[in-house]
Structure formats: structure tokens, C-alpha cells
Design goal:
286 residues; Rossmann fold; Elongation Factor Tu (Ef-tu), domain 3; 6-stranded parallel sheet; ATP binding
């Protein structure tokens, strides 16, 4: 997968070297089942038209720049993890737009001209609620107008499970209330963080990217995956522990050594961090 970083204003050289593509559009935090539906739809079109499959996304999250309402600074999938998932899904080109105040002020029609037409987009694919341009004034209906016939547009319908829209917001709310066991219904797999670990028998220290969104404080059953090693244990979260580090106590297995590529999966909520027997129900961020 080829990665192209784009700042403001977009460089003419990047536009001139761009390849004809089908472009999937969105922020894609978590790359959940709804996001996968969009990317798979774009991939099908790319195969039919013999074009490159491209994804255009932004970083950081617009809320951290515009600062209106709740700001998102921790992610379900930090940027390097999101890139790896895109590659696994068969993406050929990844356009990463650095989101800043200048990009936030780009009119919707200019965004289409510079960032879609300018990057040789032949077909744009996005979810029904995708917006773009200054104050999100561009939507999927406007995209048809702004394209001026230069490219086709496909709108992917809402994906629902258990009568709820599959969304990054839903996943963050489940994390914030400790309901990690429900996330796999919408993500397609258990919620996990990636990092490195130092293991000393049943005690394991995990170093992780602080950009990850973590569940609310409490005690959780987790699974550690490190190469061929797989084991379950308990991880306690509280507001006093240092960011970027977690400690897991394994139930039965033991392991010794340093491991660079570790996946920590969040399986179930057990109790709050004072070990009271209840399950978090309210969003602690509200």
C-alpha cells in the first residue's frame, strides 16, 4: 500500500503523480463493520473498473481542531493501526490529509476540485452521513453536484445491528461504560490494543500507544496474544496508573521475556476498580 501525506495547500506534484482510483472517504476510526462495508463496496467497483482502490482520511480528528462539542483525542485505532487494517483490506493508495484550521475552512466545492478531482478520483464511495468542506456543508447529495460529472458517486447505506447504527460513536460509548463484550458485534472482532510487553511469569507489563481509547476504570478479563502465545488474565484500570502502561495478571499460564508485537483483547467487564459487584451503565464522560 502506498501512503501519501497531504498538507495544505495540496502540492501540485502529488496531484500530477496521482493514479486513477476509486476513492473511499471517511475518518474510519475503528474500521468497524460499517467502515468495512464502505471499503468493500469501493473495492468491488475498483475491480470492475480496473482502477486502484484508494482511501482518503484525515488526521487528527476534526473535533480536536474545530473544538466544538466533545473533542476526540484518543482513538479506537491510532493511525499506524488503522493503516495496517487498510492494507489488510486490500487498499492500494492511502491519502492522509493533515487536518488543521486551513483545511477546515476549505469550501465544499474547492475540496472536491482539489482533493478528489485533483487526485484523479474516478468514483467516490462514502457512507450516507459523510460530510466535507467548511462546516460540513457538503454531503452525499452535494457531492453529486460538486463532482460536475468528473466522477461517479456511490452512497453506502446505514448498517444496523441490534437496532443500532454501527458507528465509532457507539463503540466509544460502549468503552466508556465498560461494555467491552458487546463491541465485537459491531467491530467484527474483540476490541484490542497493540503494543509491547515485559513478562515475568504470571505478571505482564504492557506498553501501548497513549493515543488508544481505553475502557472506563474497572477490572476486566483480557486475552494476551504474542506470537503463538495466548493466555487470559485480569487487567485493572484506574485513574492513578501511568498512561501508556497496563499490568495484566494471568489466570493460569506464565511467560518470561520481552515481546515487541503484542495484542491485548478486552473480553469482559468484571467489576469497578474497587471490586464492587456491578457493571458500569452510565457514560462516565457525560
Amino acid at each position: 500500500m502506498k501512503k501519501v501525506m497531504i498538507d495544505y495547500p495540496i502540492q501540485k506534484q502529488i496531484q500530477q503523480n496521482s493514479e486513477a482510483c476509486v476513492m473511499a472517504l471517511g475518518f474510519f476510526d475503528g474500521v468497524h463493520l460499517g467502515h468495512q462495508k464502505i471499503i468493500k463496496a469501493a473495492k468491488k467497483i475498483a475491480n470492475q473498473k480496473n482502477l486502484k482502490l484508494a482511501v482518503m482520511t484525515l488526521f487528527p480528528h476534526p473535533s480536536s481542531v474545530i473544538k466544538k462539542g466533545k473533542q476526540i483525542k484518543q482513538y479506537l485505532t491510532p493511525l499506524p493501526v488503522k493503516e495496517a487494517i487498510f492494507e489488510q483490506l486490500g487498499v492500494d493508495l492511502l491519502y492522509m490529509v493533515e487536518f488543521n484550521e486551513n483545511v477546515a475552512k476549505i469550501p465544499h466545492y474547492t475540496f472536491v476540485e482539489d482533493y478528489l478531482c485533483g487526485l484523479n478520483c474516478k468514483h467516490a464511495v462514502a457512507g450516507f452521513d459523510y460530510t466535507y468542506g467548511f462546516k460540513g456543508q457538503g454531503d452525499m447529495a452535494q457531492l453529486q453536484v460538486d463532482s460536475k460529472g468528473s466522477f461517479d458517486v456511490t452512497t453506502v447505506s446505514k448498517l444496523e445491528k441490534h437496532e443500532q447504527k454501527v458507528s465509532s460513536t457507539l463503540l466509544r460509548n460502549l468503552l466508556a461504560t465498560g461494555r467491552v463484550e458487546k463491541i465485537q458485534d459491531y467491530l467484527g472482532s474483540s476490541y484490542e490494543i497493540r503494543g509491547s510487553m515485559k513478562a515475568r511469569g504470571k505478571h505482564v507489563d504492557i506498553q501501548y500507544d497513549r493515543a488508544y481509547a481505553l475502557p472506563c476504570p474497572g477490572t476486566y478479563e483480557v486475552t494476551i496474544l504474542a506470537g503463538f502465545f495466548k493466555a487470559k488474565g485480569i487487567c485493572e484500570l484506574n485513574s492513578l496508573q501511568p498512561q501508556g502502561k497496563l499490568t495484566v495478571t494471568l489466570f493460569h499460564d506464565s511467560i518470561i521475556g520481552l515481546y515487541d508485537a503484542v495484542h491485548l483483547q478486552w473480553n469482559n467487564f468484571i467489576a469497578d476498580f474497587q471490586m464492587e459487584a456491578f457493571h458500569a451503565q452510565l457514560d462516565v464522560n457525560e
